[in-house]
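During the reporting period the student researcher (J.K.) took over the structure-prediction task from the postdoctoral fellow and processed the backlog of single-chain submissions. One of the processed entries is reproduced below for the supervisory committee.
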Amino acid sequence: MINQILRPLSGLFELLAGLATTLMMMHILAGVILRVVFDVSLLGTVAIVSYFYMVTMVFAGIFVVSWRQEHIRVDIVAELLPVPLRRITDSMAELASLVFFFIFTYGLTYSALQKTAVHERVDAVFSYLTVWPLRWVAVAGVGLAMLVSLWHLYHLVINGQLPAAAREDRADDQELQP
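J.K. obtained the following structure tokens:
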């Protein structure tokens, strides 16, 4: 059930992160070309990159990486452990991730509520940009990562391994790499 919700959301968030990355590169490239060729500055680039593209890339990406179990890991020692002990260490790592994501989600939600209440805007030289909605993108990305950690921890404790969907998505991506 949760797999049928998280898998499509992961694909959507991956698309959002990729789109934000592409748009950011095009925006910065346009700014550089305008400055070098026409000696014209593209106003507001820093604010737009900082508050729109980067927030979307980072926080959408956190969920995607959590779903695929592609966090930075050091498996050198873990691979040498017996399977039962490895299940325990994997469960402890997932529990630590869950606690971290819970605290992070709580803090982001608190901040998003405050910034939404005051309709947060930033000065982008030419105008003020409304940025409070992007606070909720951060909450969604980390909150979904927290849900993924909870789901993975449940499967590790009950089944002794990650849920099949996460293993399949990870294997599919590894097959595509040369």
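The committee noted the following: The mean pLDDT is 90.
J.K. will present the remaining backlog at the next meeting.
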